[in-house]
């Protein structure tokens, strides 16, 4: 495996493709929390980037160690993402509907909610381990790092856009954010079950 500009460009494009679910969830998080500070934005984008680094590496390790067990559970990936995002999005939607009168309160995502979002939006990246199985570990690590860095940038953009519109949407932002998460969960499920 030769490391060149095409490898880096391919990794970046891979990162953009994989980051789209995380971008949408970041957008929803920004909508729900329009006064989010830069440190929190970095934490959220960093969480998504971290999981986008870990998941392809976990897939690569599975291929090189326990491939037969991993492939047996690959069909569960869309179900897991659906359940996690339906839970998180449904909870946001319910909180947004209940708190309509409290328009000044921002519905922030807690630590465990953020972890669930990170797993749900990156679980499909496990299968990237299959596509990079022929790479050496350093090459697989480099590709995963590039994917994570791109995800961080894309999610920071999503949070910024969400914050901007969240300020304008005020009390409706949590409902909109929850609805977006529900739709992302359905989209991941439909793609994973019917198109793979």
Task: Describe the 3D structure.
With about 200 residues, the protein is an all-alpha fold. Helix content is about 80%, strand content about 0%. The chain is built from 8 helices and no strands. The protein is globular, with a radius of gyration of 17 Å. The two termini are about 25 Å apart. About 45% of the residues are buried. Mean pLDDT is about 80; it is low at about 100-105.
- Segments where pLDDT lies below 50 for 5+ residues? 101-106
Outline: globular
What integer value in Å does the Rg equal?
A: 17 Å
Helix content: over 70%
How would you classify the helix and strand content by structural class?
A: mainly alpha
Task: Kindly estimate the percentage of residues that lie in beta strands according to DSSP.
Answer: under 5%
Mean pLDDT: 80
First-residue to last-residue Cα separation: 27 Å
Strand-and-helix sequence, N→C? HHHHHHHH
How many helices in DSSP terms? 8
Strand elements, count: 0
Largest sheet: none
């Amino acid at each position: 495996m030769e490391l060149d500009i095409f490898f880096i460009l391919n990794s970046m494009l891979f990162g953009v493709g994989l980051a789209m679910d995380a971008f949408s969830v970041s957008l929803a998080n920004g909508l729900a929390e329009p006064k989010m500070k830069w440190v929190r934005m970095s934490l959220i984008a960093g969480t998504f980037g971290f999981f986008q680094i870990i998941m392809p590496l976990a897939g690569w390790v599975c291929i090189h160690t326990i491939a037969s067990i991993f492939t047996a559970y690959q069909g569960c990936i869309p179900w897991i993402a659906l359940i996690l995002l339906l839970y998180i999005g449904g909870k946001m939607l319910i909180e947004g509907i209940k708190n309509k009168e409290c328009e000044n309160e921002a519905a922030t995502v807690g630590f465990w909610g953020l972890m669930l979002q990170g797993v749900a939006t990156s679980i499909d990246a496990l299968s990237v381990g299959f596509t990079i199985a022929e790479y050496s570990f350093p090459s697989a690590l480099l590709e995963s790092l590039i994917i994570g860095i791109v995800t961080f940038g894309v999610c920071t953009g999503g949070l910024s856009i969400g914050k901007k519109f969240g300020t304008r949407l005020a009390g409706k932002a949590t409902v909109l954010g929850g609805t977006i998460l529900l739709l992302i969960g359905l989209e991941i499920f439909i793609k994973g079950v019917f198109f793979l």
